[in-house]
Amino acid sequence: MKNKRFLSFVPVYAFVGIVSFMAIFPFYIMMTMSTYLSEDLFTGIKLLPGNYLIENFKTVMAVNFLRFYWNSTYVALTNTIGAVFISALTGYAFAKFNFRFKKVLFYFILGSLMIPPQLGLVGFVSEMRFFGIGNTHLALILPGIANAFGVFWMTQFISAAVPSEILESAVMDGCSTMRIFIQIVLPIIRSAQITLFLLFFLWKWNDYMGPLVIISKEALYTIPLSIALMGTEYRTDFAARILALAISTIPILIIFAIGSKHLIRGLTAGSVKG
Amino acid sequence: MRNFSSKSATPYLLILPYFLLYFAFSLFPVLFTFVISLTNWDGFSEMKFIGLSNYVRLFTKDPTFYQSLYNTLFVMVFSIPAQIALGLLLAVLLKDFFLRARNSLQLINFLPYITTPVAVGILFQVLFDWKVGTVNAALVGLHILKEPIYWLGHAWSARLVTIILLVWKLFGYKMIMFLAGLSTISEELYDAAKIDGANWWQSFYRITLPMLQPIMTFVLITSIINGLRLFDEPQLLFMSESQPIGGPDHAVETVVMNFYYAAFRNFNFGYGSAIAYGLFIVIFFFSFLSMRMMNKGGESEK
């Protein structure tokens, strides 16, 4: 594809440029709007940053935003670490062991991918209430640790990336199964772990419906729940509300800026097999 | 291979935690929801078993269910093809024309996908606001519009804004999927085509598209499943005192919104569960249909 004439490049660059601009422009507007006094926002488009950022920041912090931040981080992190570990462990068994009912169980996991998460929501909320953890973070952390997508992913990855010979010689040397898993398998599949970590963290951090139906105590709110409800309380203070959105988005942006190479490499490796 | 034989208990111990957690917190709730769907229950008082009445009501006496299904499908019919076309085009162009800037352009176009849906809903509420909105300001400023449009106040424009939002949010994810698919196509195919005198469009049509068919099936099915579950963005887009559920004329009231209000606002757990199962049947039907269609398309190619 190197002998393109210059003219054919122009529309291509223009198209990609416009699309990329559209993708990023709302973020830019969000950042600049968060630096103005709310009343000033009504006077026209704000393309350059203003000088009201600190004041808006104080307004946001006044509603316990740090607390919600911590809640989201803690819930997403515990769930994600658990889910990645369980996925790898289960994937290891499916990829490297032979056992009875292996095929049936694997198809069972694949089939469960078809079930939308909302299907069991009413039952789950009732179950959590029955166990007395209906309004706790535990009820947000537990679902999704057993993640069918994660198991499928890890099974594919481990059978392709981890050579059976290494595992066999480790067995000969008398290594226990858990030691083999932790010291040999986990380091080899690091990129798959990072990919799953990014995806699971993103899903849990962004989850709105789970906290919406489970959490009713304000001290337990996660970020999406708090900004959704802050919307109704802050109807008047537009700028503070937009700053809250900007702040809630930043950690995800940083994590993905660092991890996006791994994510794309991981997704590619998965699709080669799948 | 002692440890890897079928006699050992080891593999069962390895998969045990997954299945215990899955049964406790995924499968049991799903089955329990089905039991609840056969009752009249508010979540607190005693359950009253009423057989299939909830389902009879859902499928024969509830126009809201069909209306919400129509709204959801309407939004999907326009947004999914646009997302796929835009994502595919961008992926192909990035691969062929942007060797050096590829990684940063990839990230930029992926940003909308990773942003918290709640934030996206509110952000679009602000962008399309009647008075403060950037969109109106820009269109009036450029003399495209004489008067600002009340985007979130009419049924047609409410749907349009929702479609724009979904295309904006999701085309980057499609792009990443197609880039992953493209990287599996051997360069030799393109080189051979070039030797045979094929131009860029010909190799796109004859090599890229057919080779991407498996990933296209995957993208299409996941789009349909996720599209039918639409909730966060329209819920937030029209979340204000002055708006009815799902915006003007309930134009963007989706099935899951319908489910949420029935189960968790009106505390009709039984009927809410029936809506959830109704949605599951619809998702199952459409996944099955699209899998059949894509497989047929694949066979006729060969």
Structure, explained:
The complex is a heterodimer of chains A (274) and B (302). The longest helix of chain A has 36 residues, at 238-273. Chain A is 74% helix and 0% strand. With 274 residues, chain A is mostly helical. Chain A is globular, with a radius of gyration of 24 Å. Chain A has 14 helices and no strands. Chain B starts with 9 loop residues before the first helix and ends with a helix. By secondary structure, chain B is mostly helical. At the A-B interface, helix 1, helix 4, helix 5, helix 6 and helix 9 of A face helix 1, helix 3, helix 4, helix 5 and helix 6 of B.
Give the helices and strands, then pairings.
The complex is a heterodimer of chains A (274) and B (302).
Chain A: H1 6-33, H2 38-41, H3 53-61, H4 65-96, H5 102-112, H6 121-130, H7 138-141, H8 148-161, H9 164-172, H10 177-188, H11 190-206, H12 209-214, H13 223-233, H14 238-273
Chain B: H1 10-37, E1 39-40, E2 48-49, H2 53-61, H3 63-97, H4 102-114, H5 117-127, H6 134-141, H7 155-182, H8 187-195, H9 200-211, H10 213-228, H11 232-237, H12 255-265, H13 269-301
